[in-house]
Amino acid sequence: MNVPFYIAKRYLLTKKSQNAINIISLISVGGVIIATVALVCALSVYNGFHDLITLQFSGLDPELKITPATGKVFDPDSPEFRQIKFMPEVEVFSEVLQENALIRYRDRQEVATIKGVDDNFGHLIPIDSILLEGRFALREDIVDYTTMGIGLASTLGVRAGFSNPVEIYAPKRDEQVNLTNPATSFTIEYAYVAGVFMINQPEYDQSYMLVPLALARELFRYEKEVSAIEIKLKENVDKENTKRIIQSILGDSFTVKDRYQQQEAVYKMMQIEKWMTYLILCFILSIAVFNIVGSLCMLMIEKQNDVKTLRHLGANDSFIRRIFLLEGWMISGAGTLIGITIGLLLCYLQTTFGLIQLGQTAGAFVIEAYPVKVILSDILTVFLTVSTIGFIASWYPVRS
Q1: What are the backbone dihedrals phi and psi of residue 201, each rounded to the nearest 5 degrees, phi first?
Q2: Contact, 285 vs 32, CB < 8 A?
Q3: How far is 170 from 262, CA to CA, in rounded Å?
Q4: Do 230 and 65 touch, CB atoms closer than 8 A?
Q5: pLDDT tens, 357-398?
Q6: 115 φ, ψ to 5°?
Q7: What percent of the chain has pLDDT above 70?
Q8: pLDDT of residue 151
């Protein structure tokens, strides 16, 4: 039998002669429980938002995107790109030319991001799943079509199927501006609105406009250059390994990015917010856990006669220290286990029933309730954090 553990358990469960010790012990356990629940729930909510944003961004972001390391455009007609195009891991190989231009419809105008795409783009991403109205089309006979974000369509006052086209203005990049007649310094193209998409991301909804690649080349005065190659991989393909192979083929002149790297700033910001919240809650947890110091100090004062008896029976200082150290660990450990259990239960209830809503107005947000996703590594992090802080809080008064 582990005698120090047995004595510590007796001290924890039995009623003390001084009621204040019982109250402080309960406060200590309660503080640990509340802080642990907050850690579990906060980290799980951040994980939920991370997955939600990943799902939304993936609406227009390809699995892999190749861009030049320097400059804006490049010639895709090279042996390296032909090799990549016919790799067995590659399912869709799509050429893209992206640049800003002025969009005008009647008396309204807006600067937008023109994304010229080829015929493979419809197979690259599930464009039909994000269409709000109309259809996805690029060119039929001699007519060019565009699919634009809902915010841009609202600003211009257009909808899918309008009989008049939108006008697209781009400055002639290889000519100087004619101050006497500025209109001649712009290339003008026209496109009919075939569809409107919505992915609930302002970066895309407010400014993106998909047009045929041929129209984009005419507009920006390019012959066969592109600004990016977007790739969809076959199912069950090792994405990271394929990415490394493509990067080795292209060398340092190009960068190959997956979906996370294409939106690196957003994901980094989310991670910073998540772990800053974690550190703030750890600080609160430290304050709550250090109630254990007061509880142990009062317990050691109360049990002085027991300590004398143990010494007479042959117990040394190490033996006695282990008793009170285990007492502190039990207080923090009980609070940790109960807190994690309650936190997981709340996460389950939130996922199942959506107890906490994002707003009072239905449809005002992409989802109605706070998203939650429990990750085992986060739960282990919480457990180790609370256990470590509890150990320090118990060790200090025992050693002193």
Answers
A1: -130, 115
A2: yes
A3: 26
A4: yes
A5: 886 665 556 678 899 999 999 999 999 999 898 888 888 787
A6: -115, 105
A7: 92
A8: 95
Q: Which amino acid is present at 373?
A: K
| Spatial CB neighbours of 105, under 8 Å, sequence gap ≥ 6 | 156, 157, 158, 164, 166, 167
d(CA 198, CA 127): 10
Residues 111, 108: Cα–Cα separation, whole Å? 11
The pLDDT of residue 64 is above 90: yes
Please answer whether residues 329 and 391 qualify as being in contact, where contact means their C-beta atoms are separated by less than 8 angstroms: yes
Compute the 3-state secondary structure of the chain and give helix, strand, coil in percent, each to the nearest 5: 55, 20, 25
pLDDT at 112: 96
Query: How far, in Å, CA of 71 to CA of 174, rounded?
Result: 16
Residue 1 DSSP SS3? coil
For residue 288 the two structure tokens come to 């709550």
Question: 200 near 56, Cβ under 8 Å?
Answer: yes
Q: What confidence score (pLDDT) does residue 14 get?
A: 67
Q: Which letter does DSSP use for residue 373 in this model?
A: -
Helix (H) or strand (E) holding 325: helix 317-353
The Cα 382–Cα 379 span in angstroms is 5
Q: Give the number of C-alpha atoms closer than 13 A to the C-alpha of residue 258, restricted to the C-beta side.
A: 11
> What gap in Å lies between CA 78 and CA 80, rounded to an integer?
5
Give just the sign of the alpha carbon dihedral 233, 237, 239, 241: negative
Nearest of 255, 243, 131 to residue 194 by alpha carbon:
131
Q: What is the pLDDT of residues 384-394, one digit of tens each?
A: 999 898 888 88
- Its pTM stands at 0.76
For residue 284, the model assigns a pLDDT of: 87
Condensed to tens digits (0 to 9), the pLDDT of residues 84-113 reads: 999 999 999 999 999 999 999 999 999 999
Tokens of 196: 């409107």
Judged by phi (left if over 0) then psi (alpha if -120 to 50, else beta), residue 251 lies in left
Give strand pairing partners of 100.
113
Cα–Cα distance between 266 and 248 in angstroms, integer? Answer: 27
Do 317 and 300 form a contact (C-beta atoms < 8 A)?
no
